[in-house]
Design goal:
The complex is a heterodimer of chains A (165) and B (448). With 165 residues, chain A is α+β, with helices and mostly antiparallel strands. Chain A has 2 domains: 32 residues; 122 residues, Rieske [2Fe-2S] iron-sulphur domain (Rieske Iron-sulfur Protein), CATH 2.102.10.10. In chain A, the strands form 2 sheets. In chain A, strands 1, 2, 3, 4, 9, 10 and 11 form a 7-stranded antiparallel β-sheet that branches. The mean pLDDT of chain A is 88. Chain B is 56% helix and 3% strand. Chain B has a domain of 289 residues: Cytochrome Bc1 Complex, Chain C, CATH 1.20.810.10. Chain B is mainly α and 448 residues long. In chain B, strand 3 and strand 4 form a beta hairpin. In chain B, helix 3 runs antiparallel to helix 5, helix 4 crosses helix 5 and helix 13 crosses helix 15. In chain B, strands 1-2 form a two-stranded antiparallel ribbon. Chain B has a two-stranded antiparallel ribbon with strand order 3-4. Classes of the chains: A alpha+beta (165), B mainly alpha (448).
Chain lengths: 165, 448
């Protein structure tokens, strides 16, 4: 049986607990951001004609853009192991290889300075702790000014090529 | 209703009420010695009498005291740095540079802070090794002892120390800092399902920016020191509750064998009046007066020696060793090689070595080596007192014969960690390739 004294005692405990729980929840929730001030994931990279044949590294986007004549593709420079920026190392002899069913001229390989992962010219993980190949990103031409545009939120398979007319 | 006011009777002088407001650090009698403990705030957590062999330099090496002295130094040297450091991604690096090159004594204060932090990691580790090898997490003869829980608190304090170091070396926002956050939070991110959310919470977004710095800053200056301070107080309190250092149990055990005191109910020595009421109170102070000494000055003198010695060593070392500062954080270039501080290099080594493939299934080294293995190691450490089935007589003895097997296992694990640390420190070069220390690293262009 609950008498008044007992009821008030339990009420007090519950009120205290509820108060602390509310304060705690509010404090923690306030630390989860509602607005992202991150850089946009769709980035204009410049006119396609400005890209050299072969590889160009774009540090801000941590991206390698490859050009072979009028064919473009882009591979991420973010190591899939723990997120360091891999470095490109030119191969002494370019290798022709079918990547994703389409031929590709591989000119570089990629090495990670943090834990020694190594990737082939198509981004495939070869040795070291990297669990996955480097990401390939979607490229397109901006309809307004003709710039090359990368979508860093849009991963594509390694058969992706952007061929300009 | 008005009764004439009577003069108040003189205040009773009850035993135990200390008439003298002052105490002496050089007491001339047992009474004065006890007074010092009772009436001095800083000494009140000491017992009045201590078991003499517990104070031996070669039993504990006073590593716990050294650690707390380093913690004190970190708080003291951290205070001026708080006034000088600006936790903003634009100004953090410049403010640390100012501390290093412009502020009077700035570089010395920073060096004191940094060296104390490095040595604290080492001292905490050595303290843990000492406690393990002496079986000091075991319950001996006292009633109501919970030493195993004090060991668990200790493990938590080790973690707090490591997180404090981690959050600390992020603050200069140099290359070391930036890439350490990148790697550290990506390890968290490798946890299946929850990982990316945890990382987002840690860095306050999806990229490492101002919210990241302020989060690690608040953790470093408020949350973690407060947590460590609270744990420290509880750690000390438990030592009193558990009857002092484990060595005191050992001695009591030996005496018991010789005496065979009748009566099943007993309370442990004055060193730690354990819980539960007991009709017979035994006191080590009375039974073996030659084995106990007054806390003031015998304990205080040694504690002061350890503390002042630590402060002296750090103060002098800090004039000789400059604190490094790498280039300003640059999200565009990962240093090659990018190395963590020495106490995390064994982790960097195991995240490197633990990715493997079973058919098409890949185990990510970031998760296995960065989360699972360290988690298992810490978990094993925490539950070890419950796995330890050695007799109570092995409590508080260096290399007890009955604990030989587990001491060897423990030392082997320590050796592996040390070996990995050494490989990471000395043998890893550009692209984390293996080079012997005497080999020269090849020239790698810094730009691509």
């Amino acid at each position: 049986m609950t008498d008044r004294r007992d009821f008030l005692w339990k009420g007090g405990i519950w009120a205290g607990g509820l108060g602390i729980a509310t304060q705690g929840t509010a404090s923690l929730r306030s630390l989860v951001p509602n607005v992202s001030y991150d850089a946009p994931t769709t980035v204009k990279l410049g006119m396609p004609a400005e890209f050299p044949d072969g590889l160009k590294f774009l540090p801000d986007e941590r991206l390698f853009v490859f050009r072979e004549g009028n064919v473009f593709h882009a591979i991420s420079a973010v190591c899939t192991h723990l997120g360091c920026t891999v470095r490109a190392e030119a191969l002494s002899q370019p290798v022709e290889k079918a990547v994703g069913g389409a031929p590709l001229r591989l000119t570089h390989r990629f090495l990670c300075p943090c834990h020694g992962s190594r990737y082939g010219g198509d981004g495939g993980n070869e040795t070291g702790p990297a669990p996955r190949p480097l990401a390939w990103y979607h490229l397109e031409i901006a309809p307004d000014d003709g710039h090359l545009v990368v979508d860093l939120a849009h991963e594509v398979a390694s058969d992706f090529r952007l061929t300009l007319a | 209703m008005s009764t004439p006011a009577k003069p108040l009777p003189p205040a009773p002088t009850a035993p135990g009420v200390h008439p003298k407001p002052l105490w002496s650090l050089k007491p001339q009698s047992d009474r004065e010695s006890g007074d010092a403990v009772v009436s001095n705030l800083l000494l009140h957590w000491f017992p009045a009498k201590v078991f003499k062999p517990s104070l031996d330099w070669t039993y504990s090496f006073w590593l716990g005291t050294v650690t707390s002295a380093l913690f004190l130094l970190l708080i003291l040297s951290g205070l001026p740095l708080l006034f000088l450091y600006v936790p903003s991604v634009e100004r953090a690096y410049a403010s640390v540079k100012d501390i290093e090159y412009v502020v009077t004594f700035g570089s010395w204060i920073r060096s004191v802070h940094r060296l104390s932090a490095h040595l604290m990691v080492a001292a905490v580790f050595l303290h843990l090794v000492r406690v393990f090898l002496t079986g000091a997490y075991k319950n001996g003869t006292g009633r109501g002892q919970r030493r195993e829980w004090n060991w668990v608190i200790g493990v938590a304090m080790l973690l707090a120390t490591l997180f404090l170091s981690f959050t600390g070396y992020l603050l200069p926002w140099d290359q070391l800092a930036y890439w350490a956050v990148t790697v550290g939070t990506n390890i968290a991110s490798s946890i299946p399902y929850l990982g990316p959310t945890i990382r987002e919470l840690l860095i306050g977004g999806r990229t490492i920016e101002q919210p990241t710095l302020i989060r690690f800053y608040v953790l470093h200056i408020v949350v973690l020191p407060a947590a460590l301070g609270g744990l420290f107080v509880y750690h000390m309190w438990r030592i009193r509750k558990d009857g002092g250092l484990a060595r005191a149990d050992r001695e009591a055990l030996l005496r018991e064998k010789a005496e065979e005191v009748p009566g099943r109910s007993k309370t442990y020595t004055l060193l730690g009046v354990a819980r539960g009421t007991a009709p017979a109170i035994r006191s080590l102070t009375l039974e073996a007066p030659n084995l106990t000494v007054n806390a003031v000055p015998d304990l205080t003198r040694r504690a002061a020696t350890a503390t002042l010695g630590t402060i002296a060593v750090i103060s002098i070392l800090s004039t000789l060793v400059r604190s490094p500062l790498e280039e300003a954080a640059n999200a565009l270039v990962t240093p090659n090689p990018a190395k963590a501080p020495w106490y995390f290099l064994w982790l960097q080594e195991i995240v490197t070595d633990t990715t493997f493939h079973i058919g098409s299934f890949t185990v990510n080294g970031a998760f296995l080596g960065g989360v699972i293995l360290p988690g298992l190691l810490i978990g094993l450490l925490a539950v070890w007192p419950w796995l330890d089935r050695s007799p109570a007589a092995a409590t508080g003895v260096w290399f007890a014969r009955t604990r030989r097997g587990q001491n060897l296992v423990f030392l082997a694990l320590c050796l592996v960690v040390l070996l990995f640390t050494l490989i990471g420190t000395l043998c890893r070069g550009p692209y984390w390739h293996f080079y012997w220390p005497w080999e020269t690293w090849p020239e790698i262009p810094t730009r691509i």
